[in-house]
Amino acid sequence: MNSKSFAWVFVASLSLVDCESAAEVTIPAFPDGGLVRTGTPVARDRLMRFEGMFGVGNGQRIFGETVAVRTSPGTVSVLTDKNAGFAVLESACLPDGRVVVEGYWQYPTRTEAGLVRVFVEDTALVAYLCGTEEAPPTLPAVTLKGHYGEGNEFPRNPLDFTFSRELKPWRGRFFTVAHHGACENTDHCGTAPNSLESIRLAERIGSNAAELDVRITRDDIPVLFHDPGLSRTLVRGVFCNGQLAELSLAELTAACELRYGELIPTVEETLDMMVNETEMEGVYLDMKVPGAVLPTARLASRLMTSLRERNENDDPTDDRQFGALIAITTEEVLEAWHDAKKKLAEEGLEIPRCLLEYDPDLVISEGCVAWGPTWTAGPQVENVKKVRAAGAGTIYWTINQSDFIDAFLTQAHPDGIITARAALVFHHYQTLGTPPPIRGSAE
Amino acid sequence: MNRARNLALALTAASALVSPVSAAEPSEETTPAPKKELAPQPSVSSLELSAAFGPTVVGGEAANPEYLQSFRRTGVYGEFAVGYRSSYFVDPFLSVGYATLASGQSRIPDGPYGSGGTVGQHLGAWVISPGITSDIWRFRPRFALGLAIIQQSFEFQGETHSSSQMPLVTQLGLGFNAYDDDRVRLDLEIRGVLAGGADVRFATFDAVLRGDLLYFVSR
Hints:
The complex is a heterodimer.
Chain A: H1 3-16, E1 40-41, H2 44-47, E2 52-56, H3 60-63, E3 66-72, E4 75-79, E5 86-93, E6 99-106, E7 113-120, H4 123-130, E8 143-148, E9 157-165, E10 175-179, H5 196-204, E11 209-216, E12 222-224, E13 235-236, H6 249-255, E14 257-258, H7 267-277, E15 282-287, H8 293-312, E16 323-328, H9 331-346, E17 353-356, H10 360-365, E18 370-371, H11 381-389, E19 393-396, H12 402-412, E20 416-419, H13 422-432
Parallel strand pairs in A: 10-11, 10-20, 11-15, 15-16, 16-17, 17-18, 18-19, 19-20
Antiparallel strand pairs in A: 1-5, 2-3, 2-9, 3-4, 4-5, 5-6, 6-7, 7-8, 8-9, 11-12, 13-14
Helix pairs in contact in A: 8-9, 12-13
Chain B: H1 2-18, E1 43-58, E2 68-72, E3 74-85, E4 91-108, E5 117-133, E6 139-156, E7 159-165, E8 168-180, E9 184-195, E10 200-218
Antiparallel strand pairs in B: 1-3, 1-10, 2-4, 3-4, 4-5, 5-6, 6-7, 6-8, 8-9, 9-10
């Protein structure tokens, strides 16, 4: 090849280089839908029996030595500290007198995943899980035995989990906050950040709250989206280009879809979904632009009012504890928050709760319920104590590494951590953490 | 090819101007004539204008197929360029073109924007690229790196709105010289255009008409 031809081939090759690698997502599934399809789902209140810390006998290569098991509607979540792995499982009472718990395991940052199928065989436990009677006083602890697989292979490797102790209090106490949903954009979870699907998954892999990014469309509708631009790393669609703020919601709905085909959700439908379809306890609405503050604060205010009415009525079965925090991230957003509070007062609406990220003294003077410091400034233990003394909590953003999670949990005893590794944070809170004081207590 | 022909013509003309050696009378001397030194070979370059026109096909898919009613991914591309046909390895050029890339309609449901309806969508792109080409036998590869202005417009409920963005754009093409006259050439060219930052990529199949506006002769 002469130098002229070589030069052209070189230039042509350079132009074809694409720096972005495609996401490889393989969520294994039982080809026939699994045994759960043949049984009756275990009722929500009975699922609570699965919660606890478990020792791992067979299966330590995938799950480590211990796992934390927690539940949410329809899901038993197995959370490990090994590669921030998790298993998302469903359970059902089978006609043969056993309870099956099955689904998939996955390491979010890697491509490894596989199937899991374990059983509860103790007859007394099965009778409780599949019945309607109160739990007898001598009910044995849960032991799960079965198999796991790798990739799409049928589970054949022995696996067992043995209950070791109750979980430390976490509902209403410690917030494992999902960083814009379940996983980072570069992970392999199969859902896009800031999508409804990602928030649903976040609960199934260990979060009880979510941090979500709020921007505003051209027609002033707050939506979940991280970047100002509709970049190819976040969205798909031939007609989906430019800045998000330049498109109306109708145009966004027609032209854009998130990475895995999800619609860009509005804040209104997100709050509705979180309150009515999950058991998550809160949302941290990160105001990316000042213009998003007033319309988002209106939605949070209306939600707050409707939840209070719902919790104060005579029907205790519809009670729901959920907090929507307006997260103040910059001086400009703080100014917009001041303007929004005046406007809400004029409209006769309640002022929603706020979280302030950058200054613990402002958290107190602004009357916010939480401080959201960045982890890069260190645990700042004295400031954590100061805001706690004023009745506010501390939620760090965004910690994904095991060592740092441990350091912040043990030194500062925060009220929550924003993370893309919910399984890791939940597991480490359960092994190393100290439950923060109950809000409103003098502890 | 044509450039060689131009070179020969220019060489002849230059020789005539620079070396006005008249037809010498035959020498009566028997000693051999001293060796004549060759004149330095002149080079010929030209300023070339070109115009391209042809159909396009855009890559990628329209979003949200559940709402999509129609989608057309073909359009047309037109371009003007000015280039310098140098006597060296590559010819630099600057081109400006516009492509109508895609159009479609989606029917969206009721939402916070009010009642649903049909959203008309159009995509076009300005492409402004400096680049290089070269003649290799009758083929003409092209590489260019520049800016695109990706324009999209929407129609919904009687209102039209448009927006744009400016990503970097890469062009890679290969032309075939189908006609070559002294001053005018016609190529058929296939070209890929990638505006990576906007996730817009399209291919064109163009007829490219090129003509020399000025010649530069130098030694």
